[in-house]
Write a structure and sequence with these properties.
alpha+beta, Rossmann fold, two-stranded antiparallel sheet, transport, signal, V-ATPase_asu, proton-transporting ATPase activity, rotational mechanism, ATP binding
Amino acid sequence: MKLIERQGVANKSLVFPFILVFILQMYSNSDTVVYVGCGERGNEMAEVLMDFPQLTRTLPDGREESVMKRTTLVANTSNTPVAAREASIYTGITIANTSRYGLQCR
């Protein structure tokens, strides 16, 4: 949350994805969090990719782990065709189900 506080609320559209994924990472017992940015602006997803590795969570054994280690981002910007944006939604669902059932992507 320190990163969000540092940025302030100047970029309101970026705050919600940060808070959502950060809360899922911190308080869930999941192995993977899949964030699908469908129709997002390109600079917002670039900021997520640059800033997320700095966020950490404390594991039960006291070690620090990067939030990005368990996060999968699927991004398709707003200037892409509708069919491509729709495909990114199905891609995110497929990745989440693959992780859910313990399958490994190769």
